[in-house]
Amino acid sequence: MKKLLYSFLILSSAALSAQQKNLAVKFAVADNAIGTVELFNTRKNVLQVSKVYNTPASLPQSLKKYSSVFTKGLTEYKFKNGQNIYDRMALSEINVQYNIPADHPVFIEGYEFADTSTVIYPEINKRAEIKDYNGKKTLFIYTTR
Fold first, then answer.
1. What was the pLDDT predicted at 6?
2. Which residues does 42 contact at the CB level (< 8 Å), separation at least 6?
3. DSSP state letters, 12-75
């Protein structure tokens, strides 16, 4: 009985750690696509901070769809002269690149993005893993190596 209990506890903790949110990551949005503050800070010469939202409740209507993900707030950037220099991709397209069905959710730093039409800057993807999540092949993206 003890062995069964220990096995259950080990498996449970492994499953929880696979879904653990990285609270250190600071998400940002520019041109209606998700990136990180770290990514945008590398190109400060072409970007300007538009607004910082500290709580999900303070997000404008256009960003409310991300309120469950941006629990610690987010920074919105604008491109100077309207020139976006980054590539953009929908999560569904990234799933297909990894041979995962386009409609499967994607986790970025432990935050679940169920809407795979969400557009991100793929440059935030420093490391990716394919894991089983609720019986589905699921992509987990990490913004650090």
1. 45
2. none
3. HHHHHHHT---TT--EEEETTEEEEHHHHHTTGGGEEEEEEE-SGGGS-GGGGGGTTT-TT-EE
**CA-CA-CA-CA torsion for 113, 40, 73, 57, nearest 10 degrees?**
-80
- Separation of CA 50 from chain center: 20
Place of tokens 């995962």: 100
pLDDT tens profile 55-90? 888 888 888 887 777 777 788 998 888 788 889 999
Amino acid at 90: A
Give every strand in the sheet of 74-79, ordered side by side: 47-53, 74-79, 27-30, 33-36, 119-120, 89-90
- pTM (two decimals): 0.80
107: left (phi over 0), alpha (psi -120 to 50) or beta: beta
